[in-house]
Amino acid sequence: MRYLAVFNGGLTLHFYLQWTSALLWTPVYFALQALYFVFLRTRGKVCTARDTYIACAMFLVLLAWFIWLPALMLLEQDTALRISAAAGLGCLMVFLIRRSDRLMVMIYGEILLVGVTLGAVAFLVLPQVSSLSAKSAMLVCCVALIVYFANALLEGRKMRLDAERASERTLQAQKMEAVGQLAGGVAHDFNNILTAIIGNLDLYELTDERPERDDMVRNAKEAAERAATLVQQLLAYSRKSNLQAEARDIEVMLERVRVLGARLIPASISLEVVSTHRQNWVKVDETLLMTALINLIVNARDAMPKGGRIRISAMHRHFDSPELMADGHILQPGNYVELTVADTGTGIPEAVLDHVLEPFFTTKPVGKGSGLGLSMVLGFARQSGGGLTLRSSVAGTHISIYLSEVDPPAHAISHRAA
């Protein structure tokens, strides 16, 4: 809208006053804006102090170029020009206040540019005013406007910095809470597992009966396997798993999930896998994806003790703009495959909906779940370059995994052509 206003303003002034300078003002403004944009977009991930000051200087030059034409219009006798110029300067000042720049050099530069512009206009207009009281009123109003503008800029900066500091403190507190919950959950689960292992080994030494010893060794081994599973879930949650990512056809994998999932659910629950009738290829670790989908199926099963329906579907999704995921992660624009597991259970209570993705958070009874299922799914999705969304109501829960879509490998294309 700002660019459109600048373009229309320059064009209108040229036809209204035959000002060549108005035609010059518009393309130079666009050129400076494009140069500023390109400079910002081509910086590295870490911005140096030199880059910062160059960007500041470029913005102030852009601001200076924009402001001179409205200032020139204020000196004209045409009332329409003066009103338009005052509106333009007002919009500019509001824009600068809303920006709330953090750097003091930017704040001082903006105050200086606006102050010098308004001061120059007042200096050139004052000789045209004969009344001393009118001149005094003009000077007071001009100074008051500059002072209020400067104060608004400084207050805006202070409010922005306070908000950023408050946000950082809140984020740090949330991180510490999550670390505490994670540490407590790990300690609790591993304590139970070690108790089982040590207890069985102690009993092993106290008995000479071979069958009993075999049972104790088997129990200790099962506990050790639970520990290994827990470690794998923690690695997936922390996105530190060693992925064996390869291009996979989602349709083929969904068929395997259907076969495995049918063995995990009772007859009172129906499992429906919806085919897209098109090849959707993603680059993932097949084992981890299967584990994630089985986790979601098990969660859906547990949410429907009286029976219901589980529906698994896959569809192509294209995002033109960044998409917000359930954990606050931003998914970048692009092509994705959306894998959804939906159930007809009672849904997740709203009071705990914001916590279900946290590690070791579970609504299941003690001993029925570690609370790492959804956390593992989320970690897998993030590590695979995707994300996760979650919707729940009294009609059921929908959990979607987004994975980046890739082109089919050459052998798949040749096979399909054949």
TrEMBL record:
PANTHER family (UniProt xref): HISTIDINE KINASE, SENSOR HISTIDINE KINASE
InterPro entries found in the cross-reference section: HATPase_C_sf (IPR036890), HATPase_dom (IPR003594), His_kinase_dom (IPR005467), HisK_dim/P_dom (IPR003661), HisK_dim/P_sf (IPR036097), Sig_transdc_His_kin-like_C (IPR004358)
EC number: 2.7.13.3
Catalytic activity: ATP + protein L-histidine = ADP + protein N-phospho-L-histidine
Alphabetical keyword list: ATP-binding, Membrane, Nucleotide-binding, Phosphoprotein, Transmembrane, Transmembrane helix
UniProt-listed Pfam families: HATPase_c (PF02518), HisKA (PF00512)
Enzyme class: transferase
GO function term, MF aspect, one: ATP binding
Protein name: histidine kinase
CDD domains xrefs: HisKA (cd00082)
Organism, scientific name: Thioclava kandeliae
Chain ranges passing through the membrane: 16-40, 52-73, 79-98, 105-126, 132-154
Residue ranges annotated for the Histidine kinase domain, each copy included: 185-407
